[in-house]
């Protein structure tokens, strides 16, 4: 992609001028459009505006800023709608106080209906809109085109479906970030289409760059966390991160995050720009140096938990694909299935039933409480219960130890979360894992504090540890381990604005990742990719490490349409008409097809091939013996160019992204 | 680089076993070494240890951890020595209180001698050790080998020279981070050599990966800032960041940063792991939303200041290279020149002379004071001067407005800094710019607070702004703009542990970068690269944008040594002996040199070429029409492989990193 830019930047002036005059003449000469004169004037004004804007910086920067602002607005809008819907549910539930049966109906049917609506809606409008979308985004970022996943209907279905899913609340316990990254790529691709006509000569690479930027903006505008957005964008790339995308990513992510936080200020929710889950850890002595060992242990614990979760998830993915009842149900009755699962999950969390032991009334997707820096146990010991806010009461009834509800919560949420992952609705799977990790970290810390404060040993300093820090580290470690990424470490810090625990959080995340990655285990998204048979090379490699070493030669099908040097006008015309490629290779002769170069179909028709000037040399060639991985790497390096596969100088095939997509789909089918 | 790893990971087991048995037999049969039996036993123990370690994770992870720990230790050791040397100077200066002449001698000669020593020392031991080292590291990271810059003597000279430079203190006003990144790459390259024998089958890519990791560790262990270390490592790459380096970078950076902070704890300086320049900004309301505009303005101000600084720096670089007096002096009398410049700088900052107006007694390389969250002006207004620590007094004498010393400091330090950059000593240029930016931000904020508090307008909220936040933003913005990077934004946050200002800091850094990068201006390191004629493609491209589009064909010199398919044993032996390449290309015949593949010299001698199995196909080919930039990109993708340049199937040349280095050096000479 870098090549494209450089080649084209050589004569931006000329291209610009050419296009401007082209617009004008096309407008004035277009006979069937009404009000030609006013339209031309408006257009001229727009062109002047574009010149003014373009003089300051390239038009693509405006599109990045627009992407950030639009996504921040969507994120704010979604948060607002979800809050309203959740409050409505809560209001209804409170109004029915006293009548358990009606309360149960309200508690269970509301999320069940919402999930059923989300599911049927997204299934009927655009079936590609279900799930997280991150596996598809990863595939698109690796260079494969998947137009279904970037359509306008998909965006519409995903946005509304996601609101419904999130409004189902903490009973269904699903998140926002994955679909938001997907939404961001859709908005990005639309904006890049919108800005392409005014970008003059950067068509080819604009779309690819926009997707990378959009991935960063998705995370940044969802949480107001620009730096972790950029790191996420780096991590989500398949093998190489092009440095040309670095500054655009930062710029767009900063726009998105700042605007998102500004919306909160403008709406009057907050006085200034602050972290999403603001915490108040003590800054004087955030933790004792020896606590590092506890954090390391927590990291390993989270790694083990992630392995458990991932294997359950893989099992249920396999189960839903092989069990005939499931297959039939998911094929025809998506809405019914979603409603049933949501009903089941909601019944379990009903506050008068098992829900009372797992704090189901707390809106768990905002883990403020878990990140609280005070020890819950000591809060109760000090008998200051009546001073505490009500939510804390949810987590512990006075008298019973504080870690019992936490442990019960963790035990139940594990299977509930795995079950919720099968729901065919637009939903994110990152935030639930983040919260689960926070609960795990909190339990760890409360447990340690309990053991030391009850006088088992004489470690007084251990009794006063800050459980909020452990919750933070646990959240980052578990979500990092499940997704095989490190950006959650930074995300945890950006979400809470708490930098004092940066070191331990990073340590826990690294250790959890090490455990989760050992033994070639696939990540959460890898498993989804493989299960969906997406043409994503890194996932395929993880599932079957020897696959990408297959030689590319064995996938090259029929010989491509080619021209010989001495081709006459008739042959050229025929080739141009039948070829679907953007380039037609030129060879010595059909008998000895030594590759000479290629011609562009549009410019060829006028000339004779012997005019050497119009035959361009192919700069990078592949041999049929090169592996799929090498071909993929070279292809992502050269961007949209066509790669020629030659053996001993003779042309044996072409390789473009669409061929690569077919090859990878073939490979995915073999797993 | 990724390719290598995958190809070789196919049979790690076999390679491992082979090598183990090979060690044993070689040891036992070696006749001239004494104590064969004990040595063999020890070696066997070591091998068992290696197996145990290797069972947990790859040996390379131990080398990354070792790199982090070693660098953290060196960083701590350096800080300790520099602090001692600075205290000695301060002690001497205080003892001479009352005698201005002696004080002047002490104040000026101490840094002059240190600089002279640093300069002569580094010049005599290893002339490559002067300067920052970051331009060279960037060149090495882009794939070019520069063994002089990784030698042990260089490490020795750089380490000791840097201690001397830093001990010269705030009069010379130079930093630590650049040389530290360079030191880190040297240590990394030694560690990778040390670990290579036990790494079995990952020789090729180990060195390259180690350099990338080392760049991250350099920053991380210098400041205890792991995330900005990784971002620096991403930014410093020439065009693509390979994702395989991402986790190693994070791991090693975390090791380095944690160990560095732990050393501070163990030495008793601090109670726990905290940020290097700890600040205490108010968390309730860090800034008003409208202050964003002030931060944006500060970003633009820093961008303008960076342009000014960079053009001065380019001018003096040009001047020292063209002025005959300078050339002669820098060629022969490096020590004298350094001493003279240091003497001049020290005389200017003498506290009884101009130094009293620019707080020269404050140790400026630790900008605690500039980042203070209280307004200096209000401190004096409140007449609580006697309660303040002495350093604050340095910045302002009661009665005079607080911004005068700051403005004088900024004015003087600009030319002093540019002059200091010409010193031929090992020194970093990042931290001075960071501090300069902090002073600029502070001046901006104090100015705003002064204007509003003196009743010009009625903006009461503006009068209570926190100047520390502006100093932070200014530091990040100016250092980011000068180096054309964004990681300083995160570095500023990690250095101070202050997350509340993340948004404004990022905004200011982005705007400053936008201004500094506009109009194809080279960055600080680009200018150094071009001035030193380093074979670094991105710098060359910035200096002369059309250069890298030159076709690679015109640089291909003599025909490479090649074998024809029907070559006999004598011809093969001759080719193997004369060729300096690691691969020898095989062609059809010398008359029609159609490329068939290549052979490895070592394995070839035994066999006849007709045995097809030993001729390996070349997977990626280049045409002579491909540009230097394309060739560079493909070369960095395939790692250490040799690229074959063919035209119509005929071999016309070879391309390896050493050829690429020659090409880039040729290009650099043309500028």
TrEMBL record, chains A, B:
GO terms for molecular function: voltage-gated chloride channel activity. SUPFAM superfamilies: CBS-domain pair, Clc chloride channel. Keywords: CBS domain, Chloride, Chloride channel, Ion channel, Ion transport, Membrane, Repeat, Transmembrane, Transmembrane helix, Transport. The keyword Lyase does not apply. It is a multi-pass membrane protein. It is found in: Membrane. One of its GO terms (cellular component) is plasma membrane. The chain crosses the membrane at residues 61-80, 101-121, 155-173, 210-234, 246-267, 287-312, 336-354. Its main location: membrane. Coiled coil: none annotated. PANTHER family: CHLORIDE CHANNEL PROTEIN 2, CHLORIDE CHANNEL PROTEIN CLC-KB. This is Chloride channel K.
